[in-house]
Structures are given as structure tokens and as C-alpha cells.
């Protein structure tokens, strides 16, 4: 491609709303342009990178035995009502009515469509297992689209769906897809980690893993063990049980006692004003969700993990109760709520259940209770892991390593769905004995456009992008220093012809621009190798620039060609 | 691919709503499934055909110097209001509001998006010409989606847009795209014709061509000359002027005379009841559109061509006036309307202007006028070609050949837009003299999914589809007659391995089904070559079936392989 024809205007500065490096650089280097909030056009350079990613994904999906198909974006709303996700997705679903006033949803995902399709296509176990995938556009009405391609409202996804007759089959399929995902992300040159995850709105009954590109701008926190290979999204990371399994003898403990704590509503105030250590406090938080109001108890130095609570309750959404709800349920304002005498379901974190005694709100304004004994002064019917794991805590799996935290960008997510959709949408098959059973499903997503942004975020320097060779829009960038110089023109054109014939994707900067502009644009675009055709071309020499190592070397043109074709750079 | 894993259920009968051959066969052979009216899922076989078409389109677009990009489906409604197409498209535009109540359009085409993008990207003539294209999903809320993929509400398109500094540049670009289209349709194995066309809602100032797949189910009628290469959509086909340029001497003609015609309202009644030849009659039709009411005059044996009238008036839509409007405008009901004394703009077809005299409605119930002389009894201010060309008529270009009609499916359409969009959306560039000018645009569409349907429609027989080799989902279909037979299994697997290694896309029917089912499914799916591995496999022989010629031959396995790899079939 000749750069004089390429639609790729570089910008000196990124628009102010671009806050992350990938967003700034993809805009500045002419890869993407915003059409509306969270909605982007891919310019030719961006489209080329997307196509490279798509090709890698296709190859690995095909190798894993998945079949490509293509499902519509417009999906009848009834399907989403039948799966009960119409409400769960709420405002994130883009909706429209057609001219006959039939309601449609623009698919953020395709479980409903594929499951209802399979209901009609496959009736016998003999036609299973089947795994299908597609690469296409998804829609999600994000409240706050941000970071360019990271969280868009219209974006590219690869989504796959598997259908097995049993859980063992799903385990095999899941494992095959897991490995395919590893190969895909490795081939894309990503620094990533597979972590245990929460299923969220996709749901399902089995395990689920997220693939996280490690990056400081990631929205997710990952807990990683220093000793074993445990890694989990903090939403889901379990807390080590270890020291919490203590046996307590409550018979000799003093009775709970009320004391005056005027204006003291928080653990911080108890610590600062009354010198009470947070680990002696039992926090009582009132939540609502799943059609009920309930209390969650965690130790004063711990945080409630709402995902764990939500999953325990079986609700799709939970939230801290508003002040009116708190007063109605606890007869006191928040800050003085306590579990003693509270007529709500109590969810106690394991660390609370392990306390000999603690300090709680008294259920009365300006008073707290001391010597409150769990199991004696309030019930311990619902004890589980309800708190967020802490950095430095013990690994819940090996019990030896220490957890440290990383930030990650979710680029893939795989789920063992089980029968969640097949039961609701009636996708059953007859087994060998003639019995009808719902098919066992899995689903597997990769954010294609987000992956492009994650690779850009991980591969840049002060000058611009640095594409891994597998994703680079072009492998080689020829920079002709002076387009008026006939010797340079002859050399640059010959080199361009030669590389193109050898199948090396090459961009020739044949623009009538100053050398400085060409160097800057080339570094910004991040093509792995630049070959500078300047004055030395008269002697058969070029400058060979490796973008990643930022090294340069003057070598023979023939040597430059053989370096490029032997693929030692980028 | 092993057919036992392939998601491709064949159906004995197509659903009743499938009326065309392509729709029936694509459903029956397991290529597509309907999700909602005009909205289809592409099963793996269908997706493979689409990918073949996409690859051909990409290669030819790239070879023609076009750059691939990708634009969003969700487009701010303001853009469509700025181009004044929001109203023109009307109910065919799919519209939705996001959570912030901003209105979006789901793009049926992308002139607005690309033109507003170019406004920001390209400011100097030095960056032109540029041609970009994309392959993606389009949305159009058809009132009556039909014929499966022929007229869908969500469909796949390749759309391209060119930007030049002048009309000469556009002429070059247009010609390059025209040739690329020819190569694409030839490679797809289509019987097609490029025809002069009307620009419709896309608009523009220059010429426009449609590429028509010739087919009896086509919605468009094409007029084709028997002698020269003239071919045009009947909407647009000109009428030969020839004999109509007569000179008339009106001085000796009798005055117009009223005569009683009780209950006679139509040309047919005049002919049958009063023995008046239709070519002696002048029909007067009242239309409304473009904010006015006007009359169109054509000879009794001719039909009004509303596209020609619409373009002459400069309206986006015209329609026959309703009876109330007719009575208000002509003081009489339709059937007796005539041009004499009518105070409306009169659009007279050239054939009317060429009449010495004629019979018209009298503008009075139950009366007509005879000896009405055009130019004497009513004005001839607006004389042009307002009628539909007729089969058997003289070619308007060579004046020698005779027009015959064909039916066509529009699979591509190319337009010289000129400045229609660049002026409205402010896409200008500075020329060499520093003057700002709107860019000169062209646009170029191919219906990818419709093309698949057109090829299917043109390539089938009573047994099923017959894909051209370039589009076939697989090149070879191995049919193993008995999966219990170990000799057959060994031979079929070895052949499958060998062909796959040679890069021949092969489908192996390894299902435990009867031979008859396998033959029927194979013929239905339309893979160019079937190789039957049956009892003769023990002797190294297979049956070689050519789908198109429906011929079969028993040959050595090695010979079968060499025939396939030398590509002499399909």
C-alpha cells in the first residue's frame, strides 16, 4: 500500500476525552474514529488489525472443532422474555420496534437465538456434540461507554456455543476451548492470565473463567497466589478458611452490654475515638435484592463482597438498602444497626462466626453493644464466605502462598452454562434410551475489538504503538526520505515491489513530507520494522529500524530483505 | 469436516412460505434458517458460501485500489436529517433511542457516516483520490420481506465509497469499479447483465448502473436491445424518439368537439364500446408529489413511467392522486378528466406531442372530446419521455435493434453521486489553487447475501442446489456407503485425509445412514463432486459423481484424487 493513498490521518494530540494510552494512540495513529459515544469507525489500519485477530480466532476455533455460522443482530424480544433475561439486562439492551410494532432486541449475546435454533435442528444425542461460533457485531447500551474500544456500545465479538449430552462432554469441550483461548491470546502477543470468575448475567451452573489482559487500566482486580497457580477475579476470589474454624466455649463469656456512643457511626470512628480495633467490630449492612431485605455481617476490617452475597441469595442484582428501608427494617438509622434482636435474615461471614465476641450497633441511636457473642446473641444460620479477599491474605487453595492483586482487562470469558437456557427454551435431545433431556451447554466469548485495544495498551512507548508482528497492519514500513530523489525513488519502489512479491505486507511512505514527519508517523503507527531509504540508497544501503527495541542499523538492502523474510523482528 | 458433526439438518419439504427455488433449497439443504420475517441465521454451510463470496469481493476490491474499513451500524439520526434522507427513507429506516433518549438509525447504507468522516480526515486534494469499502450488516425495514435472502430486513452488503477532486477522476474510479464488479460476478458464476438504472433514494447527479442476475423471479424488468449493447432497467429505459419528431400543420384541422360517452371511463371501454383505437386516445392522469398536483398525458396504448415523471418533477415520491384530489383539481371524477381547460401543469409524453389530434376526457361527466390538437387545445410546455418502454419497441440508442424484456435480481448498483452528500455534510477539500470545493463522490454496493440467493436460484435442478466451484461450501463430498464396513472406512478416511492435506475442502459423510439418504442429501447440498466409497473400494475403485452434469463414472481412487486436484469439475 502506498501511504499517499492510505486513509490514515495522524493527529498530534488526542481529543481530551481519550484518557487511556490505547485510546489516545489508536486515535492519533489513525486506526479508529469515534462516531458517537462508545461507537467507532475502524479506519483501514484498524480494520487490518481486526482482520488479523479474526483470522487467528478463526484458525483456532476451527482447529478446536467449532463450526462458523452467523446469527442476526435483530432478535425478537419474546426470546429474551422466554429466557428471563429481558429484565436482567434492563437498560443495557438496545431495543427497537419495527414498522409493525414488533419489539426487537439488538443482540449483546446470542444464547437465546442459538438455543432456540438448536431446538429445531437437533433432536437426537447422535448429532451431538456440536460447537458453533460466529464473529460479528454486538450491541450493549453501556451507561458510561469509555476508554475507546474498551467499553463500547457497538463492538466486535467472537461468541461460541457448545452442546453436549452430558456434563463429561461439556468438561471436554470446555477444556478444548480453554486451550484454544490460550493459543489465541499467545498468538496475539498478550500478557494475560486465566482466572476463576463469576458468571454474571450469562449465568449457568458450572465453572467459568475469565481471560484477563494484565494492565493497570483494567477495570477488574485479580487475586493471584504467590505459590500455586490460583488466580481469581476479586469478585469471586475465595477467602482462606484456615484460622476461622476455631471452637468456642461460650458458657463463661459475659453477657452483652450496651454502652453510649453518641454520634459514632463508623468503624473508623470506633477506632479513632474509642480505641477499638476494627477486627473486634461486627459490621451490620442492610441489603435489598431478590425481593427481600436482609443483613450481611462482616468483621470491621473486612469488606462485603456483593457478588458472593448475590450468588448466595440467588438474586440477579443486590444493593445497599436506602435509608428509609434501613429505618423500616431495623427501627434505627444506619450506623447503629446491629444483629441482636434484628428480625431479618442474617448472612454472617465466616470470620464473624469465628469471633469469640464482638462489638455491634445496639439497634438504638447513639448506642453500641459489647461482648456480643455470635451464635448466642444472634443466630448463625447462614454462615459462608461473604467478604472480599485481601491483598496479602493466604491463598484459599494451597494455604501457603500469599495473594497479590493485579488489574486486568477482560478479553475472554468461558462458561459452563449447563441447562440454564436449554430448559427455558426447550432444547432437548433424546438419549440412547429414548429419554428426552435438555442439552448441556457452554458458551465462550472473546471481545475482538477490545482485544485490539488491550494489545495496544500493552504494546506502546512514548513515541506510539508497537504492534506484535502477528497483529501489525503491515509488517514493514518503507520510509523514502525524499520523493524528489530519483535514486531513492528507484530503490524504494524496487524494495516495495520485491517485498510485496514475497508476500510481505508493506506500507510505502511515498508522501511528499519531511523526514521528521515520516519518522514520527511511522513510530506512532507502530509497524514492527521500518526501512529507511535515504541518501545511502545510492550505495545500496538502507537504515533498518526495529520498532520494539528502538534500534537502528545501516545495512545492505539485500540484507534488509532477508531479515524481514526470515522474520527475526517484530 | 465430518458430516456427523456438521450442523446441517436437511428437510424433506420447505416451509410453505418459501416460494422461490433458492429460498426452498437453501432452507431444505441446511444453509439458512429464519429467525423472524426477513431475518436469517446462516448455518455453517451458508456461512461458508458467504465467506467465499466475501473473499472474492475483497480480492477484487483490493485489486481495484479500494481500502477496507468498518463503519458502525448505529448512526446518529442527526446525520440522516442533515442529508435530508431521514424523511426520504421513512419507515424503511430502523430507528431506536438509546438510554439517554438520543435517536439512532440502523444503517441501511453509509453515505452519511463516510462523508462526515471524510470531512474530518481529508482537507487537501493531495490526499485524493481515495476509495474505501466495507463488508457488513445492513438494516432495512422492508414492508414485505420476501423470497428468503432476496429481500431481507437484516442482510450483508459490500458498500464502497469513492472521493475524487473532479468528475474526470470519478469517471476513472467508476470505470475501475464497474470492471471489478464484472470480475466479481463472473468469478461467482452468475449469469448477469449491467444495465442503466435509476438512482432512487441514493440519488446523485451522474450515471448509475445496476448489475442484474438474470432470473425469472427477479423483481426488476430489464429492456435489452437485440442489436447493440444497450440494456436498462425498465424504470429508466428510454423510448426511441424516431417517428415522434413529426411536423404538424394544425391550421386545417377541425375544432375539438364534445361527444356523449355515458359511463365510459377507460381506454378499454372506448375501444370496445366505441371502436376507438387506443393510439387515438390521450390519457390524462392526475398525480401528486413534491408538494404539487399535476397531470401526465400519455397515449392510450402507453403506460406512464412514474420514475421518469418523479425525476422530471424532482420529487422523491409521487403517486396517483386520490379521488378527492382529482375532483378538486379537475372538477370532475377520474375517467372524464382531460387536458383542455385544465389548470394544472401538464406533462406530455413525446408520443402525445407527436399526435395530430386525439380523443380526451371532456372535463365533464359522461363526455369526451374528439379532434383535440396538442399545442392548440392544450399547452405543450413540458414535453419529455414520460412513458414506459415497450417490449418490441425500437432501441433508443442504435435505433435499429428491437427491445426485449428480461427479469433481473439486482445484485449490485454503482452510482456517480457527485456532490449530493459532500455539499450537505460539508466535505470539502482545497484544490491546488487554495480554493475549497466539495469532493466528488461515487458509491458502489453489492448485496452479499442476496448474491448467494441469486447464485442458488440460477444453479439448481430437481434434486437440489448445484454450486459453482468458487462458491461451494466444500469442493468434494465423500459418501461412505456403509460405516460398518471396515474396508470402506479405511478407504474413505484415507481419501479424506489425502484430500484435506492437498488443501481440498472436503466433507465426509460418515453418518450411519442409508445410502439413499446420503445420495439425496448430497445432491440437495449441491457440492460439485461426490466420491462414493462403496463395495468397489475393496478393489481400489470409487464412483465419481459430477453434480452439474449429473454424470457418474467408476474410476480408481488415485484417478479421483487427480481429477479433483486438477480442478476439472464443478
UniProtKB/TrEMBL annotation, chains A, B:
Catalyzes the attachment of proline to tRNA(Pro) in a two-step reaction: proline is first activated by ATP to form Pro-AMP and then transferred to the acceptor end of tRNA(Pro). As ProRS can inadvertently accommodate and process non-cognate amino acids such as alanine and cysteine, to avoid such errors it has two additional distinct editing activities against alanine. One activity is designated as 'pretransfer' editing and involves the tRNA(Pro)-independent hydrolysis of activated Ala-AMP. GO terms for biological process: prolyl-tRNA aminoacylation. The keyword Cytoplasm applies. PANTHER family: MITOCHONDRIAL RIBOSOME PROTEIN L39/PROLYL-TRNA LIGASE FAMILY MEMBER, PROLINE--TRNA LIGASE. CDD domains: ProRS-INS, ProRS_anticodon_short, ProRS_core_prok. PROSITE patterns: AA_TRNA_LIGASE_II. One of its GO terms (cellular component) is cytosol. This is Proline--tRNA ligase. It catalyses: tRNA(Pro) + L-proline + ATP = L-prolyl-tRNA(Pro) + AMP + diphosphate. It holds the Pfam family tRNA-synt_2b. Belongs to the class-II aminoacyl-tRNA synthetase family. ProS type 1 subfamily. Consists of three domains: the N-terminal catalytic domain, the editing domain and the C-terminal anticodon-binding domain. Signal peptide: none annotated. Keywords: Aminoacyl-tRNA synthetase, ATP-binding, Cytoplasm, Ligase, Nucleotide-binding, Protein biosynthesis. The gene is proS. GO terms for molecular function: aminoacyl-tRNA deacylase activity; ATP binding; catalytic activity, acting on a protein; proline-tRNA ligase activity; transferase activity.
Amino acid at each position: 500500500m502506498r501511504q499517499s493513498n492510505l486513509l490514515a490521518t495522524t493527529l498530534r494530540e488526542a481529543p481530551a476525552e481519550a484518557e487511556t494510552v490505547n485510546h489516545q494512540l489508536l486515535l492519533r495513529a489513525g486506526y479508529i474514529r469515534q462516531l458517537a459515544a462508545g461507537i467507532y469507525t475502524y479506519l483501514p489500519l484498524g480494520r487490518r488489525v481486526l482482520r488479523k485477530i479474526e483470522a487467528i480466532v478463526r484458525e483456532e476455533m476451527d482447529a478446536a472443532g467449532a463450526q462458523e455460522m452467523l446469527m442476526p443482530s435483530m432478535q425478537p424480544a419474546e426470546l429474551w422474555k422466554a429466557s428471563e433475561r429481558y429484565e436482567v439486562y434492563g437498560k443495557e439492551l438496545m431495543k427497537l420496534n419495527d414498522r409493525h410494532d414488533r419489539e426487537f432486541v439488538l443482540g449483546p449475546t446470542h444464547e437465546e437465538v442459538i438455543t432456540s435454533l438448536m431446538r429445531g435442528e437437533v433432536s437426537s444425542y447422535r448429532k451431538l456434540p456440536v460447537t458453533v461460533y460466529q464473529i460479528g457485531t454486538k450491541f450493549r447500551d453501556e451507561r458510561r461507554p469509555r476508554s475507546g474500544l474498551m467499553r463500547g456500545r457497538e463492538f466486535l465479538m467472537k461468541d461460541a456455543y457448545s452442546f453436549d449430552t452430558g456434563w463429561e462432554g461439556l468438561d471436554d469441550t470446555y477444556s478444548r476451548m480453554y486451550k484454544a483461548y490460550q493459543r489465541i491470546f499467545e498468538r496475539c502477543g498478550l500478557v494475560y492470565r486465566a482466572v476463576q470468575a463469576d458468571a454474571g448475567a450469562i449465568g449457568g451452573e458450572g465453572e467459568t473463567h475469565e481471560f484477563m489482559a494484565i494492565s493497570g487500566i483494567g477495570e477488574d482486580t485479580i487475586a493471584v497466589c504467590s505459590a500455586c497457580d490460583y488466580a481469581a477475579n476479586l469478585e469471586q476470589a475465595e477467602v482462606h478458611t484456615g484460622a476461622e474454624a476455631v471452637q468456642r466455649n461460650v458458657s463463661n463469656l459475659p453477657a452483652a452490654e450496651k454502652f453510649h456512643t453518641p454520634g459514632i457511626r463508623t468503624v473508623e470512628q470506633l477506632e479513632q475515638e474509642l480505641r477499638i480495633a476494627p477486627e473486634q467490630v461486627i459490621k451490620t449492612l442492610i441489603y435489598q435484592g431478590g425481593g427481600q431485605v436482609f443483613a450481611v455481617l462482616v468483621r470491621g476490617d473486612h469488606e462485603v463482597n456483593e457478588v458472593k452475597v448475590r450468588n448466595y441469595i440467588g438474586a440477579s442484582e443486590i444493593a445497599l438498602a436506602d435509608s428509609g428501608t434501613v429505618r423500616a427494617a431495623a427501627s434505627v438509622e444506619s450506623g447503629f444497626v446491629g444483629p441482636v434482636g434484628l428480625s431479618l435474615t442474617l448472612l454472617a461471614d465466616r470470620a464473624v462466626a469465628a469471633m469469640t465476641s464482638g462489638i455491634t450497633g445496639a439497634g438504638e441511636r447513639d448506642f453500641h453493644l459489647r461482648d456480643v457473642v455470635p451464635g448466642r446473641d444472634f443466630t448463625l444460620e447462614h454462615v459462608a464466605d461473604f467478604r472480599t479477599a485481601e491483598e496479602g491474605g493466604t491463598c484459599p487453595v494451597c494455604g501457603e502462598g500469599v495473594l497479590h492483586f493485579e488489574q486486568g482487562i477482560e478479553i475472554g470469558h468461558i462458561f459452563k452454562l449447563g441447562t440454564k437456557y436449554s430448559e427455558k427454551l426447550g432444547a432437548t435431545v433424546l438419549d440412547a434410551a429414548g429419554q428426552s433431556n435438555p442439552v448441556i451447554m457452554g458458551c465462550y466469548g472473546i471481545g475482538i475489538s477490545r482485544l485490539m485495544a488491550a494489545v495496544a495498551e500493552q504494546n506502546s512507548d512514548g513515541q506510539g504503538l508497537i504492534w506484535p508482528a502477528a497483529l501489525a497492519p503491515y509488517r514493514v514500513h518503507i520510509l523514502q526520505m525524499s520523493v524528489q530523489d530519483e535514486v531513492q525513488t528507484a530503490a524504494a519502489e524496487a524494495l516495495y515491489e520485491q517485498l510485496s512479491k514475497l508476500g510481505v505486507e508493506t506500507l510505502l511512505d511515498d508522501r511528499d513530507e519531511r523526514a521528521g514527519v515520516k519518522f514520527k508517523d511511522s513510530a506512532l503507527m507502530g509497524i514492527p520494522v521500518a526501512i529507511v531509504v535515504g541518501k545511502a540508497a545510492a550505495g545500496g544501503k538502507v537504515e533498518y529500524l526495529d520498532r520494539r527495541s528502538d534500534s537502528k542499523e545501516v545495512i545492505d538492502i539485500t540484507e534488509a530483505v532477508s531479515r524481514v523474510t526470515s522474520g527475526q523482528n517484530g
